[in-house]
Protein 1
Amino acid sequence: MAKYFDVHPENPQRRTISTVVDNIRSGALIAYPTDSCFALGCQLGNRDGLSRIRSIRNLDDRHHFTLVCQNFAQLGQFVHVDNDVFRAVKAATPGSYTFILPATKEVPRQLLHPKKKTVGVRIPDHGVTQALLAELGEPLLSSTLLLPDEEEPLTQGWEIKERLDHLVDAVVDSGDCGTEPTTVIDFSGGEAEIVRRGAGDTARFA
């Protein structure tokens, strides 16, 4: 059964955040809130967590996983960003955007798109997510909590606990979060290509 953590949305309890991060470091797969919607997350090198995300979401090897980063300095360790792209990404973060960029050697090979060698990155504008990332000290390997054959992501912590009780190890609930997945922008070819329209305004990339 999944552990259930009730976290204050604006002032996350430090002890609770620390306990969740201890679980992540011990190999846990968690469901957690972001500024777009709930996500599945685990530690970067957690192969079992990665395969469980693939299984829960029924994903193939061409799916772009996302590294959810605390800040721009951390993001820059895992993707190559040239000056023009830097300015565009910097202006849109933190926020409900995922950017697909060429990965550095810091990214485990099993996370890369098999042909493009790219990975998704984002910096969320959400207090609980930021508290988890600050405590963890590294990005969370993540994917939107969108179940196969369902058009809408799950948005209620209690429902996630109910439906995924034996599939995830913990559910972090901080009340209302976003209900729409991130907007996905592919910069791997140098120009902005809108892959998915979601919570982030696409006008700046049109």
Protein 2
Amino acid sequence: MSDSTAGETDDERRKRGRAPDPLLPGQKPPVITVPTPVVISFWLWIAAGVVLVAGQIALLVLKQELTDGIIKQITANPVPGQPVDPAQIASGVNTLLWMLLGGAVTFAVLFALFAYKAREGTRSARTVLTVGAVFLVLVELFVLRGTLNVFLLVATLLTAIALILMYLPSVGDFFPKVGRELP
């Protein structure tokens, strides 16, 4: 350890783009002061994941009504040359809903993991959460644009607020920019 870094706190090292000092066995980790917006953002990411999963569970509960609506719509406007098989439509809806639930659970777990890492001050975790939020917005705008999924809308709103909180100027020092030059 050089003289310029001797005696620095982990927060001071983080501001310089350096990793915290390693812990020896039996040492307790230092207490990091997490800015309030980052703490609020963490809980908003958790809430967004819970809302996403709850929305997909609600769709699974309403699976029969959804399937009946799709069958009714397809039989009212049949495509020439393609027969309507209600069993095949029901199977497709069932598969789609389970895949969407798997995707929602995956997003919820990733949101929780990277929000936790962002709460520790990891800049790359904030970047991954930004990409996840953008992907969620794109799915809502282009893939599910014809549906009114209140759960997805609420989750998107929560992620947008959480993302804004992570990019406030007051928390900029908590996510230090690491220099490109080697020490």
Protein 3
Amino acid sequence: MSGDTNAVQGGRRISAHAVCAAIRDDIVSGAYQPGSRLTEELLARRYGVSRVPVREALRTLESEGFVTTRRHAGACVAQPSEREAADLLDIRALLEPLGAERAAQRRTEAHLKVLRGLVRLGRERAQGGRLGELRPLGDWFHETLAQASGSPSLAALLVQLRRKTAWVYAAAPGPRPTPLEGAVRPDPAARAMESWAEHGALVDAVARGDADRARALATVHTERALSEFRLRRPIPVRTSKHSVNTASGRN
């Protein structure tokens, strides 16, 4: 199978893209810890493919920042720095509102149908306390919203940013801040219901073609989400004049 970026598994061909997605998912989920080696032979055995699509997948993951190549060690899971973690949040805060604005201008009825269906499901799961089912729904919602922007490049970048942010802040959460005495911890169920209410308002603005409203709502929603990431892993204050202020704690 030399030179072929597809593998055969169970009588069907597995593309390098599918292998890449599988390795990426395992990195994001923590199956491969930062700094751990990724050998072609072991990966090929794990996913039941040849080394050719694995090699192609590792090159792609390196370009995305999930994998790095070390001298004398080969491919390893990347170890993101504090600066990179903070930069990811700043970039998302800039691009996600732009994506929502473009979605209001370019969305199709098919996009709206999916978005409305996801909001309905998200609200039902949140109200029923089925919080463990909300993350994949949220990922699907934001990927659909990104696709509705009508820009494949922007959509791909937004999806990659969300994946990488989740990975970075789960991979090395660091010390959690000590809550202030008497402070009330946010109720996860209440927060989930509020988040999906924000999703619903955003879809309404996108459906009306109100680009300004969609951008404003996405800004509020994104700032709240990114503030929650910062609480997981406090980032040292930087002096960059381009940093985004999310001190309000809005998501």
